[in-house]
Amino acid sequence: MNTNAAPTVHSPLDQKILEHFPGLVVRKDLTTELKQNAVVPTYVLEYLLGQHCATDDPALIQEGLESVRRILAKHYVHRNQAELVRSTISDRGSHKVIDKVTVTFNDRGGFHEAEFTNLGLKKVPIDDSYVKRFPKMLVGGVWAITDVEYELPVDPSASPWQIAGLKPIQVAGIDHEEFLKARAQFTTEEWIDVLMQSVGFNPEPFTRRGKLLTLIRLIPFCERNYNLLELGPKGTGKSHVYAEFSPHGMLISGSEVTAPKLFVSNANGKIGLVGYWDCICFDEFAGKDKRVDMMLVDIMKNYMANRTFSRGIEQLSAEASMVFMGNTQKSVAYMLKHSHFYEPLPDKYIDSAFLDRIHAFNPGWEVQTVRHELYCTGYGFVVDYIAEVLKYLRTEDFTGIYKQYFEISSEVSIRDQTGFEKTFSGLMKIIHPSGKATPDEIAELLEFAMECRRRVREQILRIDDTFKPHDFIYRNLQTGADITVLTPEEQQYPAFAGLRPLSKDAAPSAVSEQVSVAGVTGKSRPASTTKPAAAADHASGSAQVSTAQLNEQHLVVPENAMGWSYRRLFSDYLQGCSGIIIRDPYIRAFHQIRNLAEFLRMVNEITPVGDEVTVHLITGSEQETLEKQVESLRQVQDSFAGTSTPFSWEIDASPNFHARSITTDHGWKITLDRGLDLFQRFEFSPFNAAAVMQEARMTKGCEINYIRTVT
User: Fold this and answer.
1) pLDDT class of 687 with cuts at 50, 70, 90
2) Fewer C-beta neighbours within 10 Å, C or N terminus of the chain?
3) What band does 541 get if pLDDT is binned at 50, 70 and 90?
4) How far apart are CA 423 and CA 420, in angstroms?
5) Tell me, what DSSP letter sits at residue 669?
6) 357: which residues sit within 8 A by CB, 6+ positions away?
7) Which of the pair, 679 or 155, is modelled with greater confidence?
8) In contact, 293 and 191? CB cutoff 8 Å
9) Rg (CA), the chain
C-alpha cells in the first residue's frame, strides 16, 4: 500500500471518531502495512502509531510512519538479526530493544532472571521492583521497550548483560468519564461500526448479526470469569482478537495446557496464568488426537463454576475468563442429524458438567471467512486504549439492566440464566457502556445472549439424557407478549432440532424415526431453509433412483449439442453414496477447476439435508502452473469445508496417469474419455445463460461408460 497516495477525504464516521477521540485513534491500514515487516502483536504496533500517527493530516501521518519505521528498524529485534543487535549493545555499552521479556525465578540464587524472546538472551538479572510492578512477565511475558547494557563482570560466573530500564508497551491510563461523554456523541449503529473498525474490520460487508457475532469475542475482556466457546470453519479469524487485540489476553495452544501452567504448581506454589491474565484463549481446542489430562478437566470445571482452585489446602480465586476456539469439519446440518456440535472436541471435554459451565456458544459457521475486502482502511481506536476501557468495565455489573423492561417467563436453570445474563452484561458494556439503552436495543442483546446459551443447552441434551429440555422465553413487561428464543439452526433444520441421545444398542432406523417425530410433533417453528429448488426432488428423496434399478451402459454425448449437464449425466449414479473419487489428470487450468467446483455443487445439491458426501480428487500437474493450481485447489477445498460436500485432493506425478473416471463407494465407476471437461468455451459473463446453466453450453463430443463394480 502506498501511504503517500492515501486519500484525505474521510467518511462521516471517521471524521466523527477523529473529532471526539483525538489522539486515541489510528488509521487501521497503517497497522496492516507495518505488520508485514514486523512479527509483533497489533497492540505493540498501534502503541507506536498512536504516539506518532494519531492524526488525519496526511503529511503528519507520513512523517509519523517514517518515525515508527525508524524506531522499529533501530530497536525491534528480528530473530535473524539477534547476533547483530547483541554486537551493537556490546559496542555501545547500552541499547534500547523492543522485544518480549519473560521472567523466571532462580531457586538457587534467590533472584529473578529475564529472557528475551527474539534477542535470544537468557538468565539476564532483573531487579525485583520490575517484577513486582509487572508480574505478567512471570506468566507468558510482556512486550516492552528495554534498556539493555553490556559490561564484562569481575565475576566470570555473572552475566555481562544488565537491564537498566524497562517500560511495558501499554497506555498510561484512561479517563472513563471522558470516554462515556465521547461515546454519547455516537448512535448505536455508529458505535458498533467504530468497534468493528477498531478490531480491524470494515463494517460495511457485515450484517447487524454478523457484527454481534464478531463483538461477542470481546466480552471475555470486559466480563470477569466469562466462559465462551466458538467452533467453526478455518479462516474466520477466531483467534485474531485474542492474539492481537489486548495486552491483557493470552493465546495458548489447546495442546499445551497443563494444570500447573494454568492454575498452580503444587511443587513450588507458583500461580499460573489465571492469576495474571484477564482472558485466556485456548486455540485449536478441537481435535480428537489431543491428549487431555482428566485432572485438568476437573480443575477447570470447578474454576469455571466457582472461580476457585486449590493450592494444597488453600482455596484461591481468580477472575480470568476462558475462551475455547476450535475448527469444525462437518456441516451444521450433518452435525444436527448425526451427532452434535461438540463432536470436534477431545472426548474428555465432551462432558455435560464441563460444557454446562460455558456461558455462550458463538456459531463460528456464521462468521465470514476473512478476506482482503473485510480489512478496515478507516479509523479505529488504538487497540491498547480500547483494551484498557474494557478492562475498566470488568468492575461494572450490567446483568440486571434488562429487568426494568423484560422478565424471563420460562423455567430455566441457574446456569442457563447466569450464562445469558453474563453475555447480555458483556454486550451492554461493549455497545452501551453507560448502561443506558432503549427497550428495543436491550431486547436485541438479551435475545442474542439467550440464543447463545440455548445453543449450549440444546447440544448438551444430545449427549446427556439426564438434562431436561425447556424453553427460553422472555416477556415484554410493557406489552405482556412472550417471545420464544430459538437458534437459527433450529429454525433452518426443524426436523433435526429435537434429536436426543440414543442408547448404544438402538436400531439404525431409530435416527430416522427421531427425525420424523421431531419434524411432526415438534413445536411450531418457521419453515426450514432448503437446498436450491433444482435439487429439491433429489434432496427429499422423492425422485431418487435405486442403484439396483440402474443399468450399465455406454453413452455417447454428441458434439455441439446443448441440454447436457453433470446432473443429467451423473446424478442418478451418485445418489446414495457417501464417498466419491475423481481421477482426472487435467484439473489444472482455470476452466477445469471451475468445472470441478460445478461438479461439487451438483453433488452438494443432490445430497439429502444433514448427510455428507466426501469428494477426493486425484489429478496431475505441470511445473510451470503448479503453484497457481495448488492455490486454486486450496480455495476450492476451503470454500466447500463445512458443506455437505467436503473436498480433498492430491497430485499424482506419474507420467502414466491418463485414465479419467468417477468412482463411488456404493458400487459404480464412470469412465470418461474427456474427464469433466465436457463443454466448449463460452463467454464468462453473469448475463450469459451458459455461465450459470450447463444446459445452455455446447458440448465437446465424448463417450461415457457406466460400470457396476459391486453386484
Assistant:
1) confident
2) C
3) very low
4) 5
5) E
6) 227, 301, 304, 305, 415
7) 679
8) no
9) 29
Closest to 536 measured CA to CA, from 526, 524, 528: 528
User: Around Cβ 691, how many Cβ atoms within 10 Å?
Assistant: 15
Count of beta carbons in the 10 Å neighbourhood of residue 132: 9
Average of per-residue pLDDT across 127-144: 88
Question: How confident is the model over 501-529, as pLDDT tens digits?
Answer: 654 444 444 444 454 434 333 333 333 33
Residue 376: what are its φ and ψ, rounded to 5°?
-80, 140
> What span, in angstroms and rounded, lies between the C-alpha atoms of 679 and 594?
12
The pLDDT-based confidence of 312 (bands split at 50, 70, 90) is confident
- The torsion defined by the Cα of 607, 613, 619 and 623, in degrees rounded to 10, comes to 100
Q: What is the mean pLDDT of residues 377-395?
A: 91
pLDDT at 535 over 70: no
Confidence category of residue 392, pLDDT binned at 50, 70, 90: very high
Residue 266, SS3?
Answer: coil
What region does 235 belong to: left with phi over 0, alpha with psi -120 to 50, or beta?
Answer: left
Residue with cell 480491524: 200
Q: Determine whether 355 is exposed, middle or buried from the number of CB atoms within 10 Å of its CB (0-12, 13-18, 19+).
A: buried
Q: Which residues, including other chains, have CB under 8 Å from residue 287's CB and lie 6 or more apart?
A: 254, 255, 326, 344, 346
Q: Residue 33: count other Cβ atoms within 10 Å of its Cβ.
A: 16
What is the model's pLDDT at position 270? 81
Are 334 and 644 within 8 A, CB to CB? yes
The helix (H) or strand (E) run that includes residue 583 is strand 579-583
CB atoms within 10 A of CB 82: 18
Q: Which grid coordinates belong to 558?
A: 454428441
pLDDT digits (tens, 9 = 90+) for 7-36: 455 789 999 999 999 888 888 888 877 776
For residues 609 and 334, is the Cβ–Cβ distance under 8 A? no
For the cut 50, the answer to whether the pLDDT of residue 534 exceeds it is no
Q: What helix, strand, coil percent values describe the chain, rounded to 5? A: 40, 20, 40
How many C-beta neighbours within 10 Å does residue 238 have?
26
* Beta-carbon contacts of residue 544 (< 8 Å; ≥ 6 apart): 538, 575, 576
Average pLDDT over residues 647-669: 94
Name the grid cell of 592.
477445469
CA end-to-end span of the chain: 62
> Are 463 and 500 spatial neighbours (Cβ–Cβ below 8 Å)?
no
d(CA 592, CA 16): 49
CA distance 259 to 266: 10
What mean pLDDT value characterizes the chain?
87
How does DSSP classify residue 137?
Answer: G
Classify 600 as helix, strand or coil.
Answer: helix
- 221-251: pLDDT as tens digits: 999 999 999 999 888 888 888 887 888 888 9
Give the contacts of 215 (CB within 8 A, at least 6 positions apart).
192, 195, 196, 199, 427, 430, 431
- Find out whether 228 and 216 touch, Cβ atoms under 8 Å: yes
Stated length of the chain = 711
Distance CA 399, CA 618 (A): 55
User: Which amino acid, 192?
Assistant: I
Half-sphere exposure of 401 toward its Cβ, with a 13 Å CA cutoff?
A: 27
Q: What percent of the chain has pLDDT over 90?
A: 62
Higher pLDDT, 36 or 684: 684
| Residue-by-residue DSSP string for 217-260 | GGHHHHSTT-EEEEEE-TTS-TTHHHHHT-TTEEEEEGGG--HH
